[in-house]
Specification:
The complex is a heterodimer of chains A (about 300) and B (about 450). Chain A is mostly helical and about 300 residues long. Helices cover about 75% and strands about 0% of the residues of chain A. Chain B has helices spanning about 1-30, 30-50, 70-90, 100-115, 125-135, 155-160, 180-185, 195-205, 220-240, 240-250, 260-270, 280-285, 300-305, 345-355, 360-370, 385-395, 410-420, 425-445; strands at about 55-65, 90-100, 120-125, 160, 165, 170, 170-175, 175-180, 210-215, 290-295, 315, 330-335, 335-340, 400. The chains are: A mainly alpha (about 300), B alpha/beta (about 450).
């Protein structure tokens, strides 16, 4: 086999990428395929013997599992809130940071810092704040509107989780939006200002279309990660009380490692979650990519 | 100059990371390294005398226990075992002790067992885990071991499955609910034996502005205790064949719906914001007299006494109906020790297992760990609350903890949390538990 120059280049590329590719294959792809295989069995995570049940797990998850359906609904509600709020807030913060002069780096750092914390740690911090600090404030500072069970009451625990996830996630998107805002040509904004457009009109008609690619990425990232939220919920409420704040990832985790340890069934539910996320994000990317505009 | 400064700073940071890693690793391997110095220490003296015979045979045992709070006691006990084994059988045993947190222990153990890396000895929960582990082939038959006849009959039954003894019981419990002796004496209340008496006691406490019940529902296993007692008392006194019928699918939780009576009473007369109180916080509050009663077991005794060493509490059976026969103490075995059938050093492992119930050395160990006596050699004096519970047992007012199919207990835990938060109704709980039971029975086929 003659090694043409082109072939040599391809082989060189593959060799360079090989270590990373090997790690990815072993730690990401192999378990994914393994999970897909287990989803067709009724393995209980412990017994070396198990039987192949085909798609019975999928059928059961979609028809006979009220807690799975409920956790899907709860997660969907959470995703909608997160996508809207996280992107709006990140954009607002990015615009704020961009408009600062000398304190730009300072503001950027403060808003990005929560993202550097692991969400589990952040979750435990907020658990302390929402339980001990609020009760202290209620007693001493008489801020009675804080006097409710932020974690235990199913009505309010949703908002607690939302706030903590936003606190942790906004920084990352803000950095992306800052980068894209810096890419908007100044000439266009100046032209709009000369034509008498107000700040809001400039933003809506000039800046926003120019940062559309970043918006696509932002929405995609938020959709992807909020469907899979686990850390913040686990640390704050553990899915409780009961199952009131149980997101899909927690439902799957519970199914696989507690109760009956139905590992095969939980793998099937995980595959279903994967398919849902894939479909939704593909649709979203397709729609938003078509609306992007070139400078 | 600047470059050198930056390079220097980076070097310092990296070194501090590496030294921290090295430090942590030393701590992690401390248990096993502590084991070897002890064995080399003990093997130093006997080997001097046995040097004439032969070199001691080296054996390594992997022991997996889920009580990190008893690490020191067990390490000392294993050092004693090493000395004994070397003196009697000329075997130098190194014991690698693994003690993870109880919440992760089950998963770690299951992963090890499933990947053929089973420890030689490991702890498991007798009532909950024995059936599953036995069916998967991870427990060996211990019926002919010398410790078996020494174990109390009632405790031995809890570690027997399909006629074979498959584990050595460590933690045996007799429990009902805990009550604050001082508050009861002040209000002139005696532990009630019927539901009406309990209601009267609750009214008296409410009138005196004392919260009757401690509610600590953050960790789901605590609310589930209410159902365990309630169901246990109801089934053992009024519906003795209910479990059999449920396993055949011929009964339902509707038949024993009266279990909710005492649960409703407890939930309606408890402390505030229960979802923000976990086991530790609950123990602290109970020890400080914030409530008169707590549906909890004496396994919390250590935690409670740590907060308030002068606290006097007692154990009483929970009344479940107006039939005093329903108020009984629950006898259970939780943590037990099993031997893996794939152990490479089965003989030495079995020696260690039998040593846990050794005629001379076992009693001091169990006394130090504050475990209940489980066998004939445990003649130490028990704590006042244990004697109180045992008095009920001696009167015949006790039953063996019910053996529910896998998953029903966990489901009950979650449902009771939701029940307090008014997320589910009684009907829904009954339906869901019936379904969970059926699924559990099916999974065990």
């Amino acid at each position: 086999m003659r090694l043409t120059k082109k072939r040599k280049q391809s082989i060189a590329l593959l060799l360079f990428a090989f270590p990373a590719l090997a790690f990815y294959a072993v730690f990401m792809l192999a378990p994914a395929f393994g999970g897909a295989a287990y989803s067709l069995t009724d393995w209980n995570g412990l017994n070396p013997a198990f039987s192949w049940v085909g798609f019975a797990n999928y059928a059961e998850a979609l028809t006979d599992d009220p807690s799975f359906a409920r956790s899907l609904a709860f997660t969907a509600k959470f995703v909608v809130f997160m996508v809207v709020l996280q992107n709006v807030i990140a954009l607002a913060l990015a615009a704020l940071v961009e408009s600062r002069g000398r304190s730009k780096a300072w503001f950027r750092t403060i808003f990005f810092m929560p993202n550097m914390l692991s969400m589990i740690i952040g979750g435990f911090m907020w658990l302390f704040i929402l339980t001990k600090v609020t009760s202290y404030l209620v007693e001493r500072a008489r801020l009675t509107f804080l006097d409710r069970s932020w974690i235990g009451d199913p009505d309010y625990s949703f908002y607690s989780i939302l706030v903590v996830s936003l606190w942790g996630g906004v920084g990352y998107l803000m950095v992306i939006y800052i980068a894209s805002l810096q890419g908007v040509p100044k000439t266009l904004k100046e032209a709009a200002a000369i034509d008498g457009a107000s700040a809001w009109q400039t933003f809506r008609s000039v800046t926003l279309p120019m940062i559309y690619p970043a918006l696509t990425i932002g929405v995609f990232l938020t959709l992807n990660s909020s469907f899979k939220t686990f850390d913040a919920v686990y640390a704050l409420t553990g899915g409780g009380p009961g199952r009131a704040t149980q997101v899909v990832a927690m439902n799957i985790y519970e199914e696989a490692f507690s109760f009956n340890s139905r590992y095969g069934y939980a793998s099937a539910k995980a595959m279903i979650l994967f398919l849902i996320v894939v479909v939704i994000t593909l649709v979203q990317l397709r729609i938003m990519k078509n609306r992007e505009v070139e400078a | 100059m600047k470059k050198a400064l930056h390079l220097g700073l980076i070097l310092v940071l990296v070194m501090s990371f590496l030294s921290a890693c090295g430090g942590a690793k030393d701590n992690a391997s401390a248990p096993s390294s502590e084991g070897t110095p002890a064995s080399s220490g003990s093997s130093a003296s006997p080997s001097e005398s046995a040097k004439a015979d032969e070199l001691p045979q080296k054996v390594e045992l992997k022991v997996f226990m889920s009580f990190p709070r008893f690490k020191d006691q067990f390490e000392a006990y294993f050092a004693q075992f090493k000395a004994k084994e070397l003196a009697e059988k000329n075997i130098d045993v190194t014991i690698k002790l693994e003690m993870p947190n109880p919440d992760q222990a089950k998963q770690i153990l299951q992963t090890r067992l499933a990947s053929n890396d089973a420890p030689d000895l490991f702890t498991l929960h007798a009532i909950a885990d024995i059936p599953t582990y036995y069916k998967a082939g991870y427990l060996s038959d211990l019926s002919d071991q010398p410790f078996v006849p020494k174990v109390y009959e009632s405790v031995r039954k809890t570690v027997t499955y399909e006629g074979k003894v498959v584990a050595l019981p460590l933690e045996s419990l007799s429990w009902g609910y805990l009550y604050n002796k001082k508050i009861f004496a002040e209000q002139g209340i005696a532990p009630p034996l019927t539901l009406d008496e309990m209601k009267a006691a609750v009214d008296k406490l409410n009138a005196a502005n004392v919260k009757p019940f401690m509610l600590a529902f953050q960790e789901s296993w605590i609310p589930q205790l209410m159902m365990a007692l309630s169901l246990g008392g109801t089934v053992s006194s009024a519906h003795p064949d209910w479990i059999e019928k449920m396993n055949k699918g011929e009964a339902s939780y509707r038949d024993v719906a009266s279990v909710f009576d005492i649960i409703d009473l407890i939930m309606a007369n408890g402390t505030d914001k229960p979802f923000e109180v976990g086991g530790e916080a609950g123990s602290a509050d109970f020890a400080n007299g914030k409530a008169a009663m707590w549906v909890q077991g004496p396994w919390q005794a250590e935690t409670i006494l740590k907060v308030n060493p002068d606290m006097e509490f007692g154990v009483a059976p929970l009344p479940v109906s107006n039939d005093p026969a329903g108020a009984m103490i629950n006898l259970a075995t939780s943590t037990s020790l099993a031997v893996s059938p794939t152990s490479k050093n089965k003989e030495v492992a079995l020696d260690l297992l039998n040593y846990i119930l050794d005629d001379q050395d076992s009693a001091p160990l169990f006394e130090e760990l504050k475990f209940n006596p489980v066998a004939t050699m445990h003649t130490y004096e028990t704590f006042p609350w244990i004697s109180e519970a045992s008095s009920y047992v001696a009167d015949g007012k006790a039953y063996l903890d019910l053996s529910l199919p896998n998953g029903v207990t966990d489901e009950t835990a979650k449902l009771l949390q939701s029940y307090y938060a008014k997320d589910v109704t009684k009907e829904e709980i009954i339906e869901t538990l019936d379904k969970a039971w059926a699924k559990g029975v099916q999974a065990q086929q």
